[in-house]
Amino acid sequence: xxxxxxxxxxxxxxxxxxxxxxxxxxxxxxxxxxxxxxxxxxxxxxxxxxxxxxxxxxxxxxxxxxxxxxxxxxxxxxxxxxxxxxxxxxxxxxxxxxxxxxxxxxxxxxxxxxxxxxxxxxxxxxxxxxxxxxxxxxxxxxxxxxxxxxxxxxxxxxxxxxxxxxxxxxxxxxxxxxxxxxxxxxxxxxxxxxxxxxxxxxxxxxxxxxxxxxxxxxxxxxxxxxxxxxxxxxxxxxxxxxxxxxxxxxxxxxxxxxxxxxxxxxxxxxxxxxxxxxxxxxxxxxxxxxxxxxxxxxxxxxxxxxxxxxxxxxxxxxxxxxxxxxxxxxxxxxxxxxxxxxxxxxxxxxxxxxxxxxxxxxxxxxxxxxxxxxxxxxxxxxxxxxxxxxxxxxxxxxxxxxxxxxxxxxxxxxxxxxxxxxxxxxxxxxxxxxxxxxxxxxxxxxxxxxxxxxxxxxxxxxxxxxxxxxxxxxxxxxxxxxxxxxxxxxxxxxxxxxxxxxxxxxxxxxxxxxxxxxxxxxxxxxxxxxxxxxxxxxxxxxxxxxxxxxxxxxxxxxxxxxxxxxxxxxxxxxxxxxxxxxxxxxxxxxxxxxxxxxxxxxxxxxxxxxxxxxxxxxxxxxxxxxxxxxxxxxxxxxxxxxxxxxxxxxxxxxxxxxxxxxxxxxxxxxxxxxxxxxxxxxxxxxxxxxxxxxxxxxxxxxxxxxxxxxx
Length: 711
Fold this sequence. Notes:
The protein is 28% helix and 18% strand. The chain is α+β, with helices and mostly antiparallel strands. It has five domains: 1-29 and 490-596, Alpha-Beta Barrel (Protein kinase-like fold); 31-167 and 215-310, von Willebrand factor, type A domain (Rossmann fold); 172-212, no CATH class; 313-444 and 464-487, Phosphorylase Kinase, domain 1, CATH 3.30.200; 597-711, Herpes Virus-1, CATH 3.30.40. The chain has a six-stranded mixed β-sheet, sandwiched between helices. A six-stranded antiparallel beta barrel has the order 9-10-12-13-16-15.
């Protein structure tokens, strides 16, 4: 990169020093600190010895990997819940949370995969069919896990088992028959079912539930595993299953249906998902699966924490549109306290779609003007929510689907799109100005992504186009302006970072986090693109949505722009990896030279218009600094001398007056109108180093080759 002038070096060092100081303050306040409670719920019956051995040998590697990724910010506590069956002499062996890795390793080393079946219970002595069964007491183990000393913000529980819990609804008899056939093919048994390589007598022909489960009607203590996983969720525990064998598939499906379901009256329910990681017989996948589980739990807990800080019952009211079901009694009470009359909800159709509504569509480049109208329907229930907005699906009516495709809102393959509604009330969150500010942020992020894609081959980042929708017929102002965007590809959605100090550290997150760091350095510590979130396509492209620009001028880019505070929180949590080092990126306390100055457009419409990144070029001052020009006296000029803009009023013969005022170009000294001097750039002789000075179109073209036309 070309060198900066001494004054610009000073300006950059000043900005970097300010961010570095804020970064240290953020670290002292705990921003970027990672506290993790990691629980292993392990089946320790006969068939699980290889997995116990792997856990014992890999525990140190797990801790080392987490430490390498998070450094001094990591605080990890470990716990183990080893379980067998209800009737076993030792049904449970428990190690509560400890920060000692050696203590955890020694505990696991003492575990033995065995079935220590107690004598036949008194009430079963007359039951000749009673025997050691296949299901284990996972339900009881998960219930006991809720009583451990959970403390950290991030709470991750990993279940490792090859057997389902008790209850015939949690396993498939087809699978038991499949196990019988597998054993027969292996020469172990031809007419009985097999448990851990041993033939169990009493089963021939069709296998029945009571032949494989002593408690086919469910847990004898009255515990329902679907309610137990909800208890874990209430403890803010993220649940992960390592899939060892297909016998557990039905159970996991049942538990996921309960665990993933949004809780009534609590939108945070969207933040929980039971994750399944393939493992099979390959125990070498243990460390990688544990790290994936921890990373996903960190991402989920960060989102829940941000949600809890920024929302509440009253701020979520505007997500209940007039066609949605009635609010809860608490919500209605909150509305009545504010003196608002509750609207009579209209019923959605049988598929959950609301009534037909007309919307006006605005884009990032439409300069505040509508590009057309559409007729759409919005789905009754949101499918997800973030810290500041809830997201729902919408679809266009048949008559205007082609128009939506031309706008880029939908495609023929994906006729639905996503709308997002702010949780909080007021014009700051629900207005044309607020949404256009967000579109301005998106536009700046897209421009920087285009430059990144040119300069960093093989690391492509794209941002979905954004739209603002106006519902003119809605009575409530807070729900009449909504954001919209195309639907993301059907891949796993990941939040890589945010503007509150969360930074994902998985391998997939290195590239988007590096991009955030690069935007700060590329723009001379002026801009940073955060809230990197989206999916990774099959070709490796990062398809992201809803970014938030952090700018040193907090009046721009919407209320999510926290300025240098947002940048500092990112640096407090970010650890530069190989990609950052390859691009020569530096943290604020080491930053020196970034890039050459550029001419930028002034903020002239109702929102700032960003110069397209491919039009920004370095300023060329020639062989030496230009000298301060002599100004043409005001009284010698009656009309603009430049007349380079199509909007120059001098072209129509108009003279300067109280409204149409004179301006001087600081580079050539000529008198110019406002339309012919939209550019600003730092000049070597500025009294304040790095200060942006007004330049006319002729000078900006002379220095950069770019013609800046005022919009």
